[in-house]
């Protein structure tokens, strides 16, 4: 039998050592958040966990434990039949539950009795989560940030994706959040992750970056939709060098009409989102926009949204919060197309490589 505990703080640097990371919690707990790369083998599923909790409170702990043990034994047997039978003897799983207690302990004990070398997370997910939250500021402060600024519709997300395709390091906070970071930014039919899940996704991205190379990130506010960007990351971004991505108004409108085409196809949904702006722009202005949208003049509304609402708010925020925004280098693609963004990304990558080469030569 081989059953080894590992402190959560140590695990942060050792996740790569395990062949399978097994989350023994219920499906609901797993969906809320889980360790990167984990698979879900519930010792008690959602309904069983609820029923055992009710039995524990309304009857007594002994009866709850008996019923829980019966569920756990059947579930673990099913996991072994489905997932473990074909595993070689040198398979190295890591297992955890909420606090490293009975659920992961039961699964780990049986796997270790079979002969596998099982590692159990001390303190479970709860301890890992606490260690992760403390580790995010450390990782943030090791990295060399380049903040891509630019008014709404200037193509910041397109540029980030183009930079990633060129092999540059990119942290796309909106992609991780399933949101485009504005009143109109929710993606139809795609829910946002929980705050805990978002933190884990950000941490998982941070830990894979090379501190010796720049990391490009968009000039986000403190929240992307309903999730908050880690405070240490916001602070680092606001102190870092900026790039100012600029596009003419007509190109910005065309880009937004492409990226938000679902509003063009569903104008009433667009109208519903616009009504949220009444408290900022007033009912008269917003009612006018609604009439234009319903008349099919969406492009004109987008133009006014940019120049009358988003641009003033954005520029005021950038000047107030980003220390180096006024010194930002202006970068301008020839138009809003993906090809133009790819060309700009290639140019930026070449310049970055040339600068890195000069630095290396200087220190030889």
Describe the secondary structure blueprint for this structure.
Layout: E1 2-7, H1 8-11, E2 20-23, H2 27-32, E3 39-40, H3 46-58, H4 61-84, E4 93-96, H5 102-114, E5 117-122, H6 124-140, E6 144-149, H7 156-165, E7 169-171, H8 173-177, H9 195-206, E8 214-218, E9 223-224, E10 227-228, H10 231-238, E11 242-245, H11 249-259, H12 261-265, H13 267-274, H14 278-281, H15 283-294, H16 298-321, E12 329-331, H17 338-362
Parallel strand pairs: 1-5, 2-3, 2-4, 4-5, 6-8, 6-11, 7-8, 11-12
Antiparallel strand pairs: 9-10
Structural description of this entry:
This protein is α/β, with parallel strands linked by helices. It folds into two domains: 2-132, Rhodanese-like domain (Oxidized Rhodanese, domain 1); 141-362, Rossmann fold, CATH 3.40.50.300. The chain is built from 17 helices and twelve strands. It has helices at 8-11, 27-32, 46-58, 61-84, 102-114, 124-140, 156-165, 173-177, 195-206, 231-238, 249-259, 261-265, 267-274, 278-281, 283-294, 298-321, 338-362; strands spanning 2-7, 20-23, 39-40, 93-96, 117-122, 144-149, 169-171, 214-218, 223-224, 227-228, 242-245, 329-331. A five-stranded parallel β-sheet has the order 1-5-4-2-3. The longest helix has 25 residues, at 338-362. The protein starts with a strand and ends with a helix. 33% of the residues are buried. The mean pLDDT is 93.
Series of H and E elements: EHEHEHHEHEHEHEHHEEEHEHHHHHHEH
Largest sheet: 5 strands, parallel
Shape: globular
- Measured by DSSP, the beta-strand proportion falls in 5-15%
Please write the CATH class name of the largest domain: Alpha Beta
Radius of gyration, taken over Cα atoms and rounded to an integer in Å = 25 Å
Mean pLDDT: 93
Q: Could you estimate the helical fraction of the residues in percent? A: 55-70%
User: How do the strands line up in the largest sheet?
Assistant: 1-5-4-2-3
Distance separating the two termini:
53 Å
Under CATH, the homologous superfamily of the largest domain reads P-loop containing nucleotide triphosphate hydrolases
Which stretches of 5+ consecutive residues score pLDDT under 50? none
What is the overall number of helices?
A: 17
**Structural class, judged by helices and strands?**
alpha/beta
> How many beta strands in the DSSP annotation?
12
Would you give the CATH topology of the largest domain?
Rossmann fold
Looking at the overall shape, the CATH architecture of the largest domain is 3-Layer(aba) Sandwich
The structural domain count equals 2
